[in-house]
Amino acid sequence: MPFTRIVILIALLLNFLGYTLIGQTQLSTKKEIDKLIHSATKLRESGNFEKSLLISRIALRKAISIKNNELTSENYNNIAANYNALAEFDKAIFYYNKALIVANFTNNDKIKQRINNNLGNMYCFEKKKYEKGIKFYKKALEYSEKISDSSQMVLTNLNITWAYFDVGRFEEGENNLEFLNKYHDKHSDSSIVVVLKMLNGMYYSYKNEKDKAEGSFEEAIKLGLDQKNKSDLSFSHLEYSKFLLKQKEYKRAYENLDHYTKLNEEIYAEEKLEKANVEGINFELDEYKRTIDKIEHEKDVQYKSLKKSRIIVLLFIIVLFVLLLFLNSLIKNNKYRIKSNLDLMNANEELIISNKKAEELSLLKTQFVSTISHELRTPLYGVVGITDLLLEEHKELASSPHLNSLKFSARYLLSLVNDILQINKIEENKIVLDNLTFSISDEINMIKNSLSFFAQKHNNKIVIDIDPLIPDSLIGDKLRFAQILMNLVSNALKFTKNGEVQIIAKQVKVQGNIHTLEFRIKDNGIGISSADKDKIFDKFVQVGRKEIDYQGTGLGLSIVKRLLELFGSDIAVESELGKGATFIFAIDFEYDLVKTIEIINDIQIDLTSGQVFNVLVVEDNHINQVITKKILERNNYSCSVVDDGYAALAILDIEEFDIILMDINMPLINGFETSRRIRQNGIETPIIALTAFEKNEITDEAIAAGMNDIIVKPFDPVQLFKIINRLIQKTKSMV
């Protein structure tokens, strides 16, 4: 109880001291800084640069302390304007740039416009770096248009036009001049009229429209005399003299050049006097700064000393408080330490056991999936192969609904096996996206053709809408993309009858070489209820089975979601019951013609398809023997078949082959051991593993056994022949 009271008392004391310190170091408000900025601006405009700089410096420090980017930028701009007036142009540019950097962190387009215009003036008319200055003018013009500030638009357009004409780039400044003429005709702005007439004279001179040019120059000189604007008038005389010289009117050209020289001498005399005043101001300013710095330094030392004393007292109280808390915690910890250690040891033991069980279960799951897939793929190879052979050898059966149903069912079962393996691969992070070149329109049309039988089954129509802005050739993982699209379209067809499924592809963003494409798969089927939207992407979950038994495993949408995650994307669904569903996703693809050509050039072209090669098939399943032999002989290959590894070793002793197709799972001696013995016998014939196992599971062992490649059953014959021909050609080129 006494300890609790001490803690409460110390807390109250700390709270009181904290509020006191916070009150003493309260930051300046925005209103105070605005007043300082206004005061500094007025002093600068009146020519009192020393005080303007001093007040701007104080205001800048306060603005930085309250982390206000707008006020900080205003102060940097004010400081730069002072240095500009003092003819210290490098310093002015330095502070204008600092002002622009800070302003870009704000949403204040007005100050961004002003600073960009100021930098344009500095580079064009002081540094004569026109290209750089014009870039700042153009940026200022963008902000003027954004905030609809017509007066600033006029001034910036005037500066851009003059800059372009100064360097002879009349065509580029033509639009800006046109804008100024329209504005003046509408508003009769007297502040720009002298320079505007002069610029028109320069433009007409460039166009060789002599009368218009002379009229514009004479109007500029007359208006300059009326307004007593020596600077604009002097420039008008100078440009008029250049025009007259071009017309070979030397006397009048000389007279105008003389007027320009006299006006410049008057302006120079005034500037010289002003410059002398500026030099004096600079000297007084430096002295004043040194005095102020000295006073501020002494003030900082005193403040730091006072602050240090307060910190020492505060730290002493904090240390005392911490020591009391530490003492209390030691007493409590001493009571519970033994119990906590014992609980932690028990928890660690349970965690180790759980982790070991999880690893064992994961391994069992992988082995189970691998075994099941192998056992299913082997007979599927026979079913799919025999169906294809029947359809090819007996053309009259092509329209048989029974044979087509058999083929569809076999393909469906194969798709189920592949889906289960796909989920397993994704969960174990075994999928890496490829970079292949492909056409979006070709892929979508191929998917449409592949699913046409399925669409006809439910009397559905597949409609394609592809954005013409999408490039013809893109780079990405086209196989995974096709799998996503195939699953979504087949899902839409499954839940739609007598309807329409739309495949819509649209380009939504281009950033460099990356094109972002949005895809919508839209149907007018039974739709999805709000309650089911969150479930449909889970594994083995299906909706809509209450009234009709829709086929499927519930893996398709789960695979889609996980594949899109590999692309760094996600999928959304819009649907209502009875009103169909729309699935929406976006994928980034690369568009690079150079890279596309490199990928195409890297694709190996089969140059040996016209030759007859001798193939040895090592396969224990008699149905698979028949199918493989038929496929090979149908494509002009000579084929010998043996039942096991020992028979293969025996025939290789007496006969030479160009390639060996080796099954893995065989009795007596498996494919790996057979391959090892073939290599031990010094036979270099290429060996392709023809297996129902998943490729990733046997790659390491196949390489170690001396095999050259792997192809998974059921296989695409075209892919098989590509691999065969590539390996044979490679072997022959090494001889």
Automatic annotation (TrEMBL):
TM segment ranges: 6-22, 311-331
Organism the protein comes from: Flavobacterium laiguense
Pfam families according to UniProt: HATPase_c, HisKA, Response_reg
Residue positions where 4-aspartylphosphate is found in the record: 663
Entry superkingdom: Bacteria
Keywords noted in UniProt: Kinase, Membrane, Phosphoprotein, Transferase, Transmembrane, Transmembrane helix
Protein name: histidine kinase
Domain (Histidine kinase) ranges: 371-591
PANTHER family (alphabetical): HISTIDINE KINASE (PTHR45339:SF5), HYBRID SIGNAL TRANSDUCTION HISTIDINE KINASE J (PTHR45339)
InterPro entries reported for this sequence: CheY-like_superfamily (IPR011006), HATPase_C_sf (IPR036890), HATPase_dom (IPR003594), His_kinase_dom (IPR005467), HisK_dim/P_dom (IPR003661), HisK_dim/P_sf (IPR036097), Sig_transdc_His_kin-like_C (IPR004358), Sig_transdc_resp-reg_receiver (IPR001789)
Keyword Kinase: yes
Broad class of enzyme this protein falls into: transferase
Reactions catalysed: ATP + protein L-histidine = ADP + protein N-phospho-L-histidine
E.C. number(s) listed in UniProt: 2.7.13.3
Keyword Transferase: yes
